[in-house]
Amino acid sequence: MQNxxxxxxxxxxxxxxxxxxxxxxxxxxxxCYQLHDLDSxxxxxxxxxxxxxxxxLSSLDPRIxxxxxxxxxxxxxxxxxxxxxxxxSHWDSLSGLEELIFRDNKLTKIPDVGVFKKLLVFDVxxxxxxxxxxxxxxxxxxxxxxxxxxxxxxxEEIDHLHELQILELGSNRLRVMENLQNFxxxxxxxxxxxxxxxxxxxxxxxxxxxxxxxxRLTSMRGLEDCIALEEIYLSHNGIAKMEGLSKxxxxxxxxxxxxxxxxxxxxxxxxxxxxxxxNDNKIESLDGLAEAVSGSREKLTTxxxxxxxxxxxxxxxxxxxxxxxxxxxxxxxxxA
Length: 336
What we know:
Radius of gyration: 25 Å
Shape: elongated
Protein name: Protein phosphatase 1 regulatory subunit pprA
InterPro entries: Leu-rich_rpt, Leu-rich_rpt_4, Leu-rich_rpt_typical-subtyp, LRR_dom_sf
CATH architecture of one domain: Alpha-Beta Horseshoe
Keywords: Leucine-rich repeat, Repeat
Strand content: 5-15%
CATH superfamily of one domain: Ribonuclease Inhibitor
Number of strands: 15
CATH class of one domain: Alpha Beta
Largest sheet: 15 strands, mixed
């Protein structure tokens, strides 16, 4: 939060002065205060930002509902359970709230946030949520939705979120990519550490960043129509062949490390490629590498090939430097 102001000290000041000071405060940051409640805290009426990150709160102070100008509200890393957050479903007076953070608490279900009609950012990551049920009540204005590190098994009740630009569902129990067809403004999709076997972007072509690291993929098929893609992260899967990449001419970062690749294919046309991660695969030789990466030889600045058989080739580093004249990093070695 910017322009944060700590609560003014009350000692040695008359009531009128304190009141005037409080009315001028618009942002409070109580991060790491280890508060068990807000009984000793004065909440200025003109607050637009209230950050209660890393405290010991197990209930919500009802006075927060009276902060009618509030736009950003964070309860990150507290001890809030489902029953404790239920009152927010009646906080109609916070009609202008744009950001609501319940990250890292003890929630087992999605809170009812239907009253917040201007909500842009909603974060319930690092909880114990088992289902996305309840999101159907959330406003269609949401642009960023974070539900990572939970126990979610299905992508549901999200298809009305037409304004969504970032969707984070990493570290859950998802098996199928679904209900994405309405996200025509989606820029970033984070689905790492799930159980997904097949890439299905439901016809979307607007995605710029996608992460499917640590899933159960055996194929890259499903990305070929996403021509806006700039960054792809597919490490720690079972992919045996590079394919469906030739049309992704905007790609800058490609991470296919820790898979089952035996050759480098289908990236000759990628003239904007800067980072290429191929480490921990089964690529035998550097022969043909120059041709395979012909489109990005001048642009590429970082390449990882360590823990492949080809990394044991004589003059390994010298060969890569010759292929890529502007290389800045080979594996963990950075060049000045």
